[in-house]
Amino acid sequence: MVTAQSSNGATINYAIAGGNINDAFGIERSTGRIYSAGTIDYELLQEYHLWIEARQDGNTPATAFAKVMIKIEDTNDNSPVFSSTQYDIDVMENRGFGTSIYTVSATDADSGVNGNINYILSGTDAQYFKVTSSGQIRTYTTIDREKVDKYSFLVIATDQVRCLFQLMRFQYI
């Protein structure tokens, strides 16, 4: 809220005179209370610099301006996005425990902790693999093609609130 005072007690009306990109904000004419009036997205613009006009009408009209800076805080409003919608990978058999076989990649448009991504594996075949915090998938056992020739599981990318699933299929040759 912005406030202005008149030396003679005249009524003061407020308006946004500049800096209101995409009409993101409004102001109550009689009180000076600033409110959000449109879509505000931290990923598009992190701060606004509004010029507020205080106008005194009447016998002695006067106008004053003030600059108001509004900093936008990021919310967790974006889900992680994988670089591919499905992964089909061929891997040589007899890879030992802990062998890196692939690295998945996801991004999140949110900032700071809201954009931190963790990976999780899910599904029956996921028990044979582990995923690191960087998306590197490793074997959790020695893989033998004669016993099982294909594995399929989900890779989940989560940012603590939102998550995205991608199917992974491995065929051992």
Topology:
Elements: E1 12-18, E2 25-27, E3 34-36, E4 47-56, E5 62-71, E6 81-82, E7 86-91, E8 100-103, E9 106-107, E10 118-122, E11 129-131, E12 136-139, E13 150-158, E14 163-172
Parallel strand pairs: 7-14
Antiparallel strand pairs: 1-4, 2-3, 4-5, 6-9, 8-12, 10-13, 11-12, 13-14
Question: Could you explain the architecture of this structure?
Answer:
The structure is a single chain. The chain is an all-beta fold and 173 residues long. It folds into 2 domains: 12-71, Cadherins (Immunoglobulin-like), CATH 2.60.40; 81-172, Cadherins (Immunoglobulin-like), CATH 2.60.40.60. 0% of the residues lie in helices and 45% in strands. The protein has no helices and 14 strands. Strands 7-14-13-10 form a 4-stranded mixed β-sheet, with no helix packed on it. A 3-stranded antiparallel β-sheet has the order 1-4-5, with no helix packed on it. A 3-stranded antiparallel β-sheet has the order 8-12-11, with no helix packed on it. A hairpin with a 4-residue loop joins strand 13 and strand 14. The chain is rod-shaped.
